Amino acid sequence: MCLAMPSRIIDIEGSIATVDVLGARRKASLTLLPEAAAVGDYVLVHAGFALQKVGRDRIDSGEAMHEAGIARNILEIVETQCLGNGCTTVRAVRIRLGRAAGVMPEALKLAFDSLKDTTAAKDAVLVIDQVPIGGTCKACGKDLESTDARRIFLCPHCGSEDIELTRGREMEVAEMEID
């Protein structure tokens, strides 16, 4: 699986671009980009390489990677909590993430790591506790749980499709390890 961060090129020196990833600056090689790049272009960057150009409309809509917006929100929560509690350093951020939340954990970690450099969480690790999908079958009343979103929509006890999801959509900052 390839996870790439949407980035805007702000400077180019030879085959190396300086890119802005939602406020964080990184170096990215342009050697794998199939077309010429210019300052102001948006590119998807993975492992230090610009892989393809993308339109600004895809970036603005969040289509390119909505995990970056989620990571930015997590970091805003962390910063607000730090200011309120007088902390200067965050060592770890633990979140609860439901398997039905529509978020790729690996992409969220990549986005978090790319955006944290200018925050109190610059040295923090993001720990993700995944919450299984669960609910109740309305036909037989049995409690259901699954780690696979595709399997929860049919009751294994009675075969009913009348399932009420009660967990698995969580997305919350559960705790922070701070100094």
Task: Write a compact overview of the structure shown.
This protein has 179 residues and is of the alpha+beta class. 21% of the residues lie in helices and 39% in strands. The model has no long low-confidence stretch (mean pLDDT 85).
Explained architecture:
- There is one protein chain.
- With 179 residues, the protein is an alpha+beta fold.
- It has two domains: 5-61, SH3 type barrels (Roll), CATH 2.30.30.140; 66-179, hypothetical protein PF0899 fold.
- Helices cover 21% and strands 39% of the residues.
- The protein is built from three helices and eleven strands, in the order E-E-E-E-E-H-H-E-H-E-E-E-E-E.
- A five-stranded antiparallel β-sheet has the order 3-2-1-4-5.
- The model has no long low-confidence stretch (mean pLDDT 85).
Order of helices and strands: EEEEEHHEHEEEEE
Question: What overall form do the CA principal axes indicate?
Answer: flat
Low-confidence stretches: none
The CATH class of the largest domain is Alpha Beta
Main sheet strand line-up: 3-2-1-4-5
CATH topology term of the largest domain: hypothetical protein PF0899 fold
- β-strand amount: 35-45%
For the record, give the distance between the C-alpha atoms at the N and C termini, rounded to a whole number: 35 Å
- Looking at the overall shape, the CATH architecture of the largest domain is 2-Layer Sandwich
Query: How many strand elements?
Result: 11
Q: Please bin the fraction of helical residues.
A: 10-25%
